[in-house]
Amino acid sequence: MSKTVLITGATSGIGKATAELFAKQGFNLILCGRRQERLEQLKNELGRDTAIFILNFDVRNREDVFSAIESLPKEFSTIDILINNAGNAHGLDPIDKGSPDDWDAMLDINVKGLLYMSKAIIPKMVENKSGHIINIGSTAGKEVYPNGNVYCASKHAVDAINQGMRIDLNAYGIRVGAVNPGLVETEFSDVRFKGDSERASNVYKGFQPLKPEDIADIILFVVTRPYHVNIADLVVMPTAQASSTIVNKNN
Ligand code: NDP
Ligand code: 8X3
Fold first, then answer.
1. 127 CA to middle of ligand 2, Å?
2. Where are the domains of the chain?
3. Contact 131/175 with Cβ under 8 angstroms?
4. Which in 222, 227, 228, 243 has the greatest CB count within 10 A?
């Protein structure tokens, strides 16, 4: 029987590429996001290959998260694989100039949203003693870079939550692991720079960034390992990148 995979942030970037790849592999997919048109388009396109259910909610809204998961029809109600991917950076400012609204957005989405999703789904995994959770962290969860302060804090929190989940769910045979990408060209920088597309595209100029499909490939590899293999924490960067601040733009 095909496994059921829930992907948050499936309307763009890494989540969308993962949905597209997983659909080709025949996984049943629950695709989440706030942009209804994009969700419907995904359902139409990927529905040719596999069963798709779409859920439109904001991960910041705890009640909406729980009612979305409760609303799943029987055939989608057992989630085998949870991919906690929804998230973004908002702003890139020194700590004294940062916007508290941006801080709220990053902590509410990247940290609390991930926790709400996990709380809505994990109890049934525990009951079934079965499940696999992939948390999308970042190199920003491994090191802090100038002006990255709160985004980096949110991804360090994801790193800690990933470790905590693995410890707490170990007794139930539930696999937990993180995939931590470096620079991937998606809508990420458009969101970070609030629609300033020139500033956003400059982030990826002069070197070859990762593509969202590269991360989707890795997520597929992670979930298709034999049951006794759990990829606990994986960091992946473009070859041109050595750290958050060292990117070789000369080759
Ligand atoms: P995108 O901006 O392309 O995608 C972000 C996704 O998150 C969208 O599908 C968006 O959907 C969803 N999302 C954002 N806010 C909310 C919300 N409040 N409620 C529900 N869904 C939300 O960025 P990426 O694909 O790059 O980012 C995906 C993940 O990868 C993030 O966690 C990011 O931090 C991480 N990451 C990205 C890297 C990069 O360089 N791009 C590197 C390392 C990690 P919608 O707007 O429809 O709600
Ligand atoms: C996204 C990667 O370096 O832009 O998490 O913060 S970075």
1. 36
2. 4-236
3. yes
4. 222
